[in-house]
Design goal:
Length: 205
């Protein structure tokens, strides 16, 4: 049995999206971040990192959304969320790691210094530099997607799930995205599995 621990409007939607794309049966466990449930002993016993999403699959506990989505892709090959050939997989992992290490990390660093860190820990210069780093990486991504429907290979993959999620976040915090990235984000956001994943999370509250 698969159980996904998450909270709406967080990275857990990525895992729910992958599960919905795979047609997987799963239980959704709400971890209320507003009440600090992720820091309580019951959840820390499941994931000592105290982070969501967390996925439990027959006793295996996985954290980190990119790892969770890749596990789902591997577990449900019929969903074709990861290429099966060596060349395709190399391309998949290259762009997945690029998204996490060159896009998301700078966006998250900027957001922390903009609003999430205690005020005495915020450094505006770090936020500005991080947004600049994000924009440089976004330009590379835009070039990649200019004449492509998907980030890796000729079909939708879990790497697209992570990528679209990061672009949603960037758009939400008013980072300028060019027409190529907006078109890619909007087109893939119309996938029914994303709507189902959002509904599943909303129903858990």
């Amino acid at each position: 049995m698969i159980k996904l621990y998450g909270f709406p409007q967080t990275r857990s939607v990525r895992a729910a999206w992958a599960l919905e794309e795979a047609g997987a049966k799963y239980e959704y466990g709400l971890v209320n971040l507003r009440t600090g449930e992720h820091k309580q002993a019951a959840f820390l016993a499941i994931n000592p990192f105290g982070k969501i999403p967390s996925l439990v699959d027959d006793g295996l506990v996985i954290s980190e959304s990119a790892a969770i989505c890749t596990h789902i892709a591997e577990k449900f090959p019929a969903a074709r969320l990861i290429p099966m050939d060596a060349k395709g997989r190399a391309e998949y992992f290259q762009w997945l790691f690029f998204i996490v290490s060159e896009l998301e990390v700078h966006l998250w660093t900027a957001a922390k210094h903009d609003r999430f860190l205690p005020e005495d820990k915020r450094i505006p210069e770090i936020a500005n530099t991080s947004y600049w780093e994000f924009e440089k990486a976004a330009a590379v991504l835009s070039t990649r997607l200019k004449d492509r429907q998907y980030i890796a290979g000729e079909q939708f993959s879990a790497a697209d799930i992570i990528c679209v999620s990061v672009l949603h976040w960037a758009h939400h915090v008013k980072v300028n995205l060019d027409d190529t990235l907006l078109s890619y984000m909007n087109r893939l956001s119309e996938r029914p599995a994303l709507a189902r994943s959002r509904a599943r999370e909303a129903d858990a509250i």
